[in-house]
C-alpha cells in the first residue's frame, strides 16, 4: 500500500510540476494573434423577369427591341467582363421546314451593333456592376435589331443568348 501511495504522490507531483510550469511561464504583458482569410473575386448575374420569351416584331422596320436586362453584381469594386454567345450563331432561326434565318445585331447598354455571327463577344470592363454588400445588382439593357425585310419565310423565329459574367 505504501508503494501505491508513493506512486500516486510521484504522479501527482509530476502532473503538478507540468501544470505549474505552464502557468508560471508568463513573460510579457501582451499577446498577439495573427490571422488572415481570403475572399476570391466573384461576380453574379440574375435574369430577373427575363425568363419569359420576348415577342419580337419582325417586319421591314428593323426596329430595335428590348429583350431583357442583365443584372450584375461583383465584389471587386469594378465593372464586370461579360461574354455573349448566341445558340444560333447570331441568327434568329425559324421553326419552319426550311430552317430560315434572320440576322440581328445586339446592343448592350450604350454599345450598339454587336454581331454575334463571328462567335462570342467579350464586353471587357464595360458592364456596370453593383458592389454593395447587400448583393443588389445593377441592370444593363439588352436589345436586338432584327435584319428582317418583311418578306422573310413564315415561321416562328428564335435564338437564345447566353451571358457569362466574370470579375475584372
Characterization of this structure:
The protein has 168 residues and is mostly beta strands. It has a single domain (43-166), classed as Immunoglobulin-like (Sandwich). 14% of the residues lie in helices and 36% in strands. It has one helix and ten strands; from the N terminus they run αββββββββββ. It has one helix spanning 2-24, and strands at residues 43-46, 65-74, 80-86, 91-94, 101-108, 111-114, 121-127, 138-146, 157-158, 161-166. The strands form two sheets. Strands 1, 2, 4, 5, 6, 8 and 9 form a seven-stranded antiparallel sheet that branches. Strands 7-3-10 form a three-stranded antiparallel sheet, with no helix packed on it. A hairpin with a 6-residue loop joins strand 4 (91-94) and strand 5 (101-108). The N and C termini lie far apart (77 Å). The model is unreliable at 1-22 (pLDDT under 50). It comes from Pseudoalteromonas aurantia 208. Keywords: Signal.
Q: Which characteristics define this entry?
A:
single chain; 168 residues; mainly beta; Immunoglobulin-like; 7-stranded antiparallel beta sheet; 3-stranded antiparallel beta sheet; 1 helix; 10 strands; disordered N terminus; Spore coat protein U domain-containing protein; signal
